[in-house]
Amino acid sequence: MQLRTTRNALVRGGAVEGFPLILNGQYEVDWLTLEHFLDLHRSVAVSSLKLYATHLVDFLAQLEVDGLNLDDVTDEWLIAYKNSLLNRENSSGIRNSSNYASQVLRTVVHYLYWLEQNKFVRNIVGETKHHKVRIQASERGIKHPLTKNGAGSSKSIVTPRKEWIETVKTYGPEREDLTERFELMIDWGMSAGLRAHEICALTISQLPVRETAVNALKEGRKVYVKLTVTKGSKVDNIPISPLLLIRTWDYIELYRPDITEWFSKKSKSEYEVYREPDEIFLSSKTGKAVTSRSFSNSIRSALLRAIEAGDLTVDEKVWTHGLRHNFTNNLLKGFDAAGVKRPEALARQATRHAHEDSLENYSGERFNEDFNG
C-alpha cells in the first residue's frame, strides 16, 4: 500500500490540490478509502484527509502483512496493532507516542464504522456483543477504548501562560516592522483563537473598516470578522476585540507597505510585475503570504532564545497551537466565573469545534486556580 496525492483534481466541480489516493501493490486505486475521503471532504480539510490517509495506509499494509481482510478485524487484533505501533520508531528514531498510536486507531475505527454504516462490511463494528469491534455511538460521535490516549510516559499538555507568551514576543524579530507582524499574529491566535493557517490566510478585504472598530470600541462591543479559510473549509463569523482590529489596520497602513514597496521596486528592476497579495501578513523574503510553517518556526525560534537567555524554562513551552489552548481556557474560565449555563456548548461554538469532546485536549487549566490567562 502506498499514498499518492493529486496535483490538480476536480472534486465536486472544484479544483483540489493534494487530494490523497491510496494505491495497492498493482498501483490500483483503493476505491473504498477513496469513497471515504470524498465523503469526509464535505466537512474536512484536505490537510486532514492526508493525515487520515497516512494512518489508513499503515492499517491496510498491516492487514496485508497478516494475511487478513477487513472482515477479519477484531478488538483483539486492534489491541495487537496498537501495541505494534507503540513498539515502532518514527523517522526521527524515536518510539511512537501513545498519542500517535491513539490517533491512528481513532482513524481506523472511524473508517471501519463508516464501512459498516454504508454496508461495505457487516457485523464488524457496532454496540452489541455480536460485533467484532465494540464501540459506543452517540450524536457526539463514536468512542472506542483504544482511541483514548493513555497516561503512559507522555507529559500532559500545559497551556501557555500569558506571561510566557509575552516573554516569547520579546525574543521575536529585531526589525521594527517584523516585530509588529510577529506580535500581531500571536495576538490573533491568543485573543481570537485562530489556528496558524487561519492567521496566515487573513486578508485585508475581509476586515471590517477602521471606523467600524472605533465605533465598537466606544460602544464596548465586539467586531465580527468572516473567516473564509478554516479547518473544515466552513465559512465562520467570529467576534474579535475592536482593539485587535485597530492594531491590525495600524500594521497594514504603517508597516506592511515596507514589504510591498520593496518587492515592487525589486520586480521593476528585474522587468517583472509584482502583484500585491491580499493577505495581511507578508513574508519579507518572498513578498507573499507568510506560511503557517514559517510562523510556527518563528515562535519556536523565539522560545529557544528565551530559554537560552534564562527567561523561560524548557517546561514553560509556547507553541503556535498553544495560543489556541490559552484562548480556550480563558474562554471557559470566563464562562464559569459568569455562571453561564452549558459553557462547553458555547465554547465549542466559539472555538469552532465539531464536538464538545474535542475541548478536552484544550481545557487542561480550566479548573486550575494558578492559571491566570
From TrEMBL:
Transmembrane segments: none annotated. The keyword DNA-binding applies. It comes from the Bacteria. Pfam families: Phage_integrase. The keyword Transmembrane does not apply. Keywords: DNA integration, DNA recombination, DNA-binding. Residues 28-113 form the Core-binding (CB) domain. This is Site-specific recombinase. It comes from Vreelandella sulfidaeris.
